[in-house]
Amino acid sequence: MSKKILVLPGDGIGPEIVAEAIKVLQVINDKYTLNFELIEDAIGGAAVDRYGEPLADSTLAKAKEVDAVLLGAVGGPKWDTIERNIRPERGLLKIRSALGLFANLRPAILYPQLASASSLKAEFVAGLDILIVRELTGGIYFGEPRGIRTLENGQRQGYNTLPYSESEIRRIAQVGFEMALLRNKKLCSVDKANVMESSQLWREIVNEVAREYPSVELSHMYVDNAAMQLVRLPKQFDVIVTDNMFGDILSDQASMLTGSIGMLPSASLDENGKGMYEPSHGSAPDIAGKNIANPLATILSVAMMLRYTFKHPESANLIEKAVGLTLDKGLRTADIMSMGCEKVSTSAMGNAVVAELKKL
Ligand code: IPM
Ligand code: MG
Questions:
Q1: How many CA within 13 A on the CB side of residue 224?
Q2: What is the pLDDT of residues 277-308, one digit of tens each?
Q3: Which of 88, 263, 312, 352 is the residue whose CA sits 20 to 30 A from 24?
Q4: What confidence score (pLDDT) does residue 259 get?
């Protein structure tokens, strides 16, 4: 089996955190002789600088050819004022869409060692383990028509469209149910069916799919209530399945329950398990180049890559264990720092995980 990985460090803290994740990947590569072949290219602002667009066709061609993509993060103030259709974020949306990565898995797991870093009381978040399944290639992010037009009265009007077809809803619902089956068999579908037609259809189709999964307990929740419940009683959730934009928002919110968005990995999968793996956080331009960002979300994304694309759960478990052991030692990057712990740099955190991994 070919094992090619395209590495797209991107912008801001992207290159720093990806460098640490690659160290971890190399250890696994050596330990299990997996023969991974790594290719590197640019995305986002870095690609705008190199190719004049946030995702060059040649880069996309490579992404199509490899088995998995490891991505850092995109965007930054340098490119905030450029033309809308070559903004760094467009590169990310284009690669998700062109690779058909419709299923975005965003776990929010609280490492017990970080309970005090959460903004909620420890009793509300201890043992928290939620999986958000976000639809990633449809909805308002891609819907047409969209744009900024000038009305007859001379005012400009921005507009977007939120379409979801039955097949798009069905396939993401199926992922939600499949994930629930592997976990605590509870699925909460989040929508805004009291207001939006696309959500009404969403709910209808999710109910239809539910008939194929009688052992999963399905509930529906409006997104505003879900946002509230996530901070009121987060442990009521097991798997949440939701659309592109709601998933974007709720996954940031869920991440904070765990202490830091710097801890959360993600996997974006197509129909065949090919995937792109990236931290759930952004490019954090304010701390870029300072060697202080938390590399753990990217390292944990490598674990997801090994689990979902390369079907190598053993090595994925090992990485997760090594991260836990590193936290046990009290090592913390600034974002998860708490009293009595030792503050370390991005590279020191990566090296510490590598050291733990080598002992396992
Ligand atoms: C995310 C990010 C992206 C999104 C941005 C950078 C386009 O916020 O992956 O959650 O909105 O999907
Ligand atoms: Mg987001």
A1: 4
A2: 999 889 999 999 999 999 999 999 999 999 99
A3: 88
A4: 79
- Round to whole Å and give the CA distance between 351 and 360: 15
β-strand partners of 134: 104, 242
Q: Decide: 238 and 180 in contact? Cβ < 8 Å.
A: yes
Domain for residue 166, yes or no? yes
- Res 1 pLDDT > 70: no
pTM, two decimal places: 0.94
DSSP type of residue 238: S
The confidence score (pLDDT) of residue 317 equals 96
Query: Residues 146, 262: one domain?
Result: yes
Residue 260: pLDDT band (50, 70, 90) is confident
Q: Is 192 a catalytic residue?
A: yes
Give CA–CA dist 150/161, Å, rounded. 17
Alpha carbons within 13 angstroms on the beta-carbon side of residue 295 total 33
Residue 243 C-alpha to ligand 2 middle, in angstroms? Answer: 13
For residue range 220-249, what is the model confidence (pLDDT) as tens digits? 999 999 999 999 999 999 999 999 999 999
The verdict on whether 252 is a catalytic residue reads yes
Integer angstrom CA distances of residue 354 from 24, 56, 244, 254, 321: 6, 33, 34, 28, 11
Tally of domains in the chain: 2
Write the pLDDT tens digit of every residue in 317-350: 999 999 999 999 999 999 999 889 999 999 999 9
Relative to the CA of 245, which ligand 1 atom is closest? 11
Residue 67 is predicted with a pLDDT of: 96
Residues 32, 143 within the same domain: no
Indicate whether 254 and 205 sit together in one domain: yes
9/22 Cα distance (integer angstroms): 11
Which residue, among 177, 249, 246, 236, has the nearest Cα to 206 in the 3D structure? Answer: 177
* 141: annotated active-site residue: yes
Question: Is the separation of the CB atoms in 169 and 206 below 8 Å?
Answer: yes
Report which residue type is found at 257.
Answer: L
Domain with 208, as residue range(s), is: 110-269
Contact (Cβ atoms closer than 8 angstroms) between residue 68 and residue 307: no
> Which of 101, 248, 277 is the best mutation target for the ligand 1 pocket, counting ligand atoms within 8 Å of the beta carbon and taking the most?
248
Identify whether residues 141 and 265 lie together within a single domain: yes
Compute the distance from residue 309 Cα to the ligand 2 centre, in Å: 23
